Structures are given as C-alpha cells and as structure tokens.
Amino acid sequence: MDPFAITRFLDTVLAFPLTPFSTKLTTNRMDTPSVSGAILIDAKSGLCLGVAGKAKEDDAPQLTVSSWQACDSEDVGVVSLRGGRVILRKGENVLLGVFKDT
Which of 33, 51, 90, 97 is 20 to 30 Å from 22 by CA-CA measure? Predict the structure, then answer.
C-alpha cells in the first residue's frame, strides 16, 4: 500500500470534515465541530495504517476494540477518547476514525 496515498486521504478528511451524524462530506466548516485528527486502521489486525493531526498510532488497538460495540448496523459509531469524540466508520477492510474536539 502506498503510504503517500494514505497521507493524502487523511489530509482530505481533515480538510473536509464529516458531520457529526452523517458520513457525508461537507465543506461548510462553520456548521461542524472542529476536526482535530484522523486515523486509518486495518480492521482485521488493528494495526495503524496512518494518522494525521491529533490522532496517535497508539490509538489504533483501542479504537478497533471500541468499534466492535460502538458501531451500529450501518458500521458507524462514536466513542470518547482523550477528552474528545472519535467518529468511527468501518469499511470492508479498514476502520476510519475522525477526531473531533467537543
């Protein structure tokens, strides 16, 4: 996997944040809380594939385990971590975490 592709993807997530209750991208930053980081995790192994902003590689295992209970039938969930919220979105092989300050 191309590490630069992951970095570009995470930079895109930081530039166009997800709304708190949707997985649709929005460009209106005035209507959304501040996005402070993003993490991409291998959903099967729990290994970190890339981080940006406030996210840390060490968050990957905890978010992987948290996603098992936090994510609903549409594979979306929210967990608290280090004083903020992390919006989780599961894909077929990856888990995306978007860090938002509360």
Answer: 51
Write the CA distances from 80 to 4, 27, 88, integer angstroms: 28, 24, 11
Q: Which value, to the nearest 10 degrees, does the dihedral of the CA atoms of residues 27, 32, 38, 42 take?
A: -90
Query: E strands within 14-83?
Result: 35-42, 48-53, 76-81
In the chain (102 residues long), the average pLDDT of successive 10-residue segments reads 68 57 44 77 92 92 93 91 91 91 74
Q: How many CB atoms lie within 10 A of CB 4?
A: 9
C-alpha span between 80 and 33 (Å, rounded): 15
Residues 6+ apart with CB under 8 A from 83: 102
Q: Which domains does the chain have, with CATH numbers?
A: 3-101 (3.30.450.30)
The token pair that represents 14 in the structure block: 């930081």
pTM, whole model, 2 decimals?
Answer: 0.73
